[in-house]
Amino acid sequence: MGENKENQNKRKSIREAVNKRKSIIEAVIFILISIIIIKEFKLSNESLLLALLIFGIYLIVSGRIRQIKFKDMEIMLKESQLKPLGSKESLTKSFSSEDMPEIITTSKDSLAKLPGFLKKLQENPKNIRVLVIKHKEGSIYEANALRIYLQYFTHVVFLDKEGKLNGYANAIDLINIFDSSKLFPLLGAPITHESDFEKFVNSLNTWPIEYPLLIKTYVVLGMSRKQILDKMSKTGYYTLPVVGDNFEYLGFINHETVITQILNDLYSSE
To answer: How many CB atoms lie within 10 A of CB 61?
Structure first.
């Protein structure tokens, strides 16, 4: 009799462990699907609540929970959105050229380092790849070399001598400016003046940097998740650089990371 009860308890523990594991897997899948839908259709932050309500209905139907209080979930959502971006560990994982000391400039000499850079990039694949350009006396930047490096990055940040953010740009925007400036001679209209891209590269050598930097589009560590999402929605940029109290550059955060943090909070509170 005692042995049967012990076996029953073991089976019960196994079932509970299996159900818990299934719940975690299902929650992860749901979070990923929610992120894809919200990101793909550029839905507002309020869409998070709708997604969570759907998830709540699923939990009831599947028997995971007996009831759900939508008002409580709304309160939990607001509390999660108000949580601050607390540490550098909360940022989106990214590849940074800072991890490779040899890429401190994009001068012609640095092209010899390109094979080693590409190998490291393949070993550490990331959706966000940041080219860090820091103001340094004597650095020489060359337009064609910079264009070669840009194709392997998603973003470029520009830092002063103290490592403070001066601005950033999307790599594709710089590539488009470079490529469009090279099209004019092919169309029979030779450039008789310095192109926008050449002006930009020359400003890297003299500092301060000129157009097309995004100067005021950044996130400060300690801002709430809601403030970050609102800023992304307002500016139309869903991957933003993050700075500390002294304006030192810390990394990047994207829309997907913030949404995941909110949904993780809500799931773990169940």
So the answer is: 8
Instruction: Kindly indicate the confidence band of residue 100, based on its pLDDT and cuts at 50, 70 and 90.
Output: low
Helix axes 47-61, 70-81, angle to 10 degrees: 140
- Comparing CA positions, the residue from 196, 151, 194 lying closest to residue 170 is 151
| Domain-wise residue ranges, the chain | 2-81, 88-254
Most confident of 1-5, 35-39, 231-235: 231-235
What is the CATH number that goes with domain 88-254? Answer: 3.10.580.10
Q: Model confidence over 79-96: pLDDT tens digits? A: 888 899 988 899 999 988
Answer whether residue 59 shows pLDDT above 90. Answer: no
- Amino acid sitting at position 100: M
- CB-based contact 81:262 (threshold 8 Å): yes
3-class SS string, 205-261 = HHCCCCCCCECCCCEECCCEHHHHHHHHHHHCCCEEEEECCCCEEEEEEEHHHHHHH
Q: Which of 56, 55, 54, 44 is nearest to 81 (CA)?
A: 44
Residues 138 and 162: beta-carbon distance below 8 Å = no
Strand order in the sheet with 239-243: 219-220, 239-243, 249-254
For the segment 17-41, the average pLDDT, to the nearest whole number, is: 63
> 228 and 85 in contact (C-beta within 8 Å)?
yes
Token pair belonging to 106: 């994009």
What residues are paired with 251 via a beta bridge?
242
